[in-house]
Predict the structure.
Amino acid sequence: MEEKGNRIMLHHVLRYSPDMICVIAEGGRFMQVSHACSQMLGYTEEELEGLSAIDLVPPRDRALAQESLRSAREGNTETQFENSVIGKHGQQVPLHWTVVWLEEEGYFFCVARDISARWRVEKEMRRKEAVQRVLVDHGSDMQALLDENGNYLYVAVAESYEKAFGYRADQIMGRSSLSLVHPDDMGRAEQAFARLHQTQELIQVSDVRFRASSGEWRWVETRASNQLANSDVQAIVVSSRDITDRKQDQLKLQESQQRYRSLFDNNPSMVLFQDEAGTILDANPAFLSFMARRREEVLNRPLSDFLPSEAVPLFRQKLKEAFSGSDVSFEAEVIFREQGHRVLSVVKVPLSVAGRIVGVHAVIRDITEETQAHKTVERQAKRLSTIFESITDAFCTLDRNWNFTYTNPAFDNVMHVDSSGFIGKFAWDVYPEEENGVFHREYRRAVETGESARFQAHLERLDKWLEVRAFPSEEGLSVYFSDITGRVQQRQELEKLSLVASKTSNSVVILDAQRQAEWVNEGFTRMTGYTLEEVIGKNPRDLLIGPDTDKAELQRISEKFAEGVSFNTNLVNYRKSGERFWLAMDVSPVFGTAGCITHFVAIQKDITFRKEAEANLVKMSQALYQQNKDLEQFTYIVSHNLRAPVANVLGLSDLLTRIDKGSSLFEKTLSNLNLSAHRLDTVLGDLNTILTVRDSKGNLEREEVNVRLKAQQALASLQELLEGCGGTVTVDIDEDLSLRANKAYLYSVFHNLLSNAIKYRSRERNLQVQIKCESDSEQGVTVSFADNGSGFDMERARDKVFRLYSRFHPEIEGKGIGLYLVKAHLEAMGGGIEVASEVGAGTRFLIYLPKA
Amino acid sequence: MKIFIIDDDDLNLFLTENLLALEDATHEIKTFLSGTAALEALQTGGEAAVPDIIFLDLNMPVMDGWEFLEALAPLGPSISERCRIYVLTSSLSASDTTRSKEYALVSGLIHKPLKIEDVRELVSQ
């Protein structure tokens, strides 16, 4: 009965137990399974019995399952473990196993409980934790509760926050939240805190700096809510976020914007921002100033409005290129109406936002001056190079270490070398035999003294004579040289020739092609006073010419030299002593083998004597010409004055025949005829006098005459007339003054002058005459004869005063012969006379007479 | 007919004046011893003073015949249209004859002495 009862119970247990009870054979196969299996796994008992239990376990759990079974068997104890089992429909079912090994029966007794519900709860909990974690990590960085004074009561800190600030929650706990605030932000923080006490609302404070443990200031955004009155919380709830990165980005953005603006506005280049159509969206002051426009005149207008039409296509094309995504730079020569010709350097840079080009920055630089400067530099460099190349002399430069730095093509010609490899080479490696020779010595001297050197030297290697000029500079030495071998040989030859020339008495000068004296003979030295040493290497002309040398003739000589033809010349030169002399010179060019002039030979002669004779001849012929002219004048005047009375005689005698003999007119005519005949006689008498004087020249009778005495004799003869008009005469002549003269002529001179003075005295005042010796030298005597008479107009009289039959006072009787005679008499004695007069003031004669 | 005679030689003035008067007593003759005196008479007398004929000597002091002709030029057409000027000179020099032709005012040159035939010819013109 009891057994039957046990069996019934077992049957019920197996039928109703929510756990799956099963018996598993030693090999692992299900032997018996309770009914729960169909609910748990979806298998019926019959389906499971005979299956291998391990086959239902997912592979990852099998090892654990087998291990657990083994330990249950070996340890002979109850073993519990959890694993999943795959159900009939493939679902995994978590199970909690309790296993016991029944040794006697030789099988496992197992109870498996479905733990799906527990697993679900645990999983849900894990998920919630993870979500919170993520929320803290990704949401607010720190959450805290503060007491009413702002001290931390509770702090929850995200990992990143902790890392950034370097505080652990427990380090902050209990401290005042304000103690970490930046002093500059303290005001705002305190203000916000104060507001928290007044309101229940959520308060947000952004951009407050908190000090990190490293001392760094970090930007924090905080939201706080006063929950002190909330009995569940009783604190101020604070949630903060570290916004340092954002803030720094923002500041950086601001800074970069400012930097951009500053670059834009202060850029000395013109900067534009254009859209695809070329419209100017922004322009900097440099652009505005260049265009002389205001900002509003430029914005939203196409750039082409400000360019001359011919420049527009280029700018448009380049803008298009920039909009295609590439940086573009180009130079443009633009002719503006106001600014004139300009060279512009333009860079166009596309601005790309989110992969799209929204505009183009154009940076325009006015490089007109740079371009010009560049061109100038280029041109000058070219010119310098041309100069170097075109130096016809051989030319090279050496640096301070005697290395070649340049050679020109002529260098190679003269030196018979290919100098292309010389640059950088040590000069005395190239010409070792010249080291410490003349060249070396002269170059060194030039470099040391800083003064240029000029010398002639023989180059052994080529057996050549070179003329060298070396100019030192900072860089070293510039050396010019030319081959003068031919010249030196010619000079040696000329020296031989000059031996011959030295024997001639004429002056001989040999000049080189540049007209510098190479040689002069003794004749030259005799004539000019200059020795060979003094002349050599110089142009003799520079020594010999002087103030009286004919400039035009010098010019002609220069031209003849330049033409290279033979010529001769006469011109005034000066000896070394300063003495002037006339030089006659024949110059002939000497041609070298190449057909060009190598020398000039000049043969010179002193022709001063001949020139003086010539000058005398000229003087004589001039005197003769003058005399001849005087004679012509004389003849004319005499013929006129002689014919006048003759014509009257003719006319009057004819008239007589036509009138009544008894009439008074007849008487008058007859008396006039008589008068005319007398006048004719007077003229003939004058002529006789004049001709006598003229003829007396040269064979005049002369004796020692006392000048004062003659003046007084003339005065005495006119005494009566003088007294009649109340005139006075003073004679201021030394009593002893005497000279060799003709007595009668000298008397006549004084008499005529005195007689004229009385005749032409002023009617307004008494006549005063002064006769005075003005100067008395070995050569001669000058006597002045001055009156205060009526005078005459010098302007009109000038050259007529002393002319025969010239008269200036028609109202006063006179023949116009007195002064003519005075002059004639004085000239006959080798003297002369001058006059100065002023109408109404008087007349002054200056008489000159030679002593012998 | 109104006639001026200009000459510094008083004998020639006498001769010429009488010869002209002898030919035609109605002639109104004025004599001047210098060019300046004659010039003054012409300048102050106006057109009425301008004679039909002037006999002008060349060789005179102060203002010779040539200078007189130069001085006359500014007076212009009033002289040249109304008056004939004859140079009356004792000079036989060809240079004077040539020179006299350079003066548009001069109608001719007569060598002294003035002859009765000359007078008839001149007056008839």
The interface with chain A takes residues 8-9, 11-12, 14-16, 18-19, 22, 33-34, 59-62, 89-93, 111-116 of chain B (CB under 8 Å). The first strand of chain B starts at residue 2 and ends at 6.
